[in-house]
Specification:
Length: 250
């Protein structure tokens, strides 16, 4: 449909404590870490993720209030919109309104859309939190052609930003013992820069889904019970057994 799809989420808080993980220590001499937990503050990671390309825009912060999140989002989304192709010169207002309403069809409480709407240029998937529904933030997004798609907290797997955040968190903090929030932010942002050098696109029905489909095809259902087996050993008939016995006798 020619629309850019981005996902947004906040990861954290990450504490200043030892994170378990692998290390390059010799076998039998594990890396020793202090057991004390000194409360030096926490850090969070603001994340914008583009599943089609795998690119991540992120920023480490010590607090994630609307005064911190919304200005960062507006700056990053403005840069993203600048790089998108221009919309058609003339689009009928009724067609634009139908384009917006198509994304909110079926909602029990559809949003109240203003009369003057720009064409939809970007879809932003984010969690269903109260701070993401601030009137000034929603109005800014609509004025710039950004349709907000909220996902329930219980269905967070729809927000692929959470998936890439788990990857970044593991690569950045496993085996580390940051003692300040600044160190946590440095580790997270450095991992994001390394990820963007060779990003991995996310797609529905990719190689992993194909492997699972092939595995299901190799299985054989057992009498409709829901159980399955990779291979069933078939018993030879009595006649085949006698034939083989005659061959051995000869």
């Amino acid at each position: 449909m020619g629309l850019a799809v981005w996902c947004m989420d906040q990861a954290g808080p990450f504490q200043t404590l030892p994170y378990p993980g692998t290390s390059w220590q010799p076998q039998g001499h594990p890396r020793q870490q202090a057991h004390e937990y000194i409360r030096e503050g926490t850090a969070k990671l603001l994340t914008l993720f583009h599943p089609a390309s795998g690119q991540v825009r992120a920023k480490g912060v010590t607090s994630c209030t609307n005064q911190v999140l919304h200005p960062w989002l507006k700056h990053e989304l403005s840069m993203i919109l600048t790089g998108l192709p221009a919309t058609a010169a003339e689009v009928a207002p009724d067609a634009i309104r139908q384009q917006w309403l198509a994304w909110y069809e079926g909602l029990s409480q559809p949003p109240d859309l203003p009369e003057d709407l720009p064409p939809v240029r970007l879809l932003l998937v984010l969690d269903n939190l109260a701070g993401h529904k601030t009137a000034s933030w929603v109005a800014w997004c609509r004025a710039h052609g950004i349709a907000l798609l909220y996902t329930p907290l219980g269905a967070s797997w729809l927000n692929m930003a959470e998936s890439v955040q788990r990857i970044i968190q593991g690569r950045a903090l496993k085996g580390q013992h940051p003692t300040t929030p600044a160190q946590i932010i440095e580790l997270l942002e450095a991992t994001v820069r390394g990820w963007n050098h060779n990003p991995t696109p996310f797609e529905w029905g990719g190689k992993r889904a194909a492997r699972r489909a092939r595995a299901r095809q190799r299985r054989q259902a057992l009498a409709g019970s829901g159980a399955c087996a990779l291979r069933i050993r078939r018993r030879r008939s009595i006649i085949d057994h006698w034939k083989n016995a005659d061959k051995h006798d000869k």
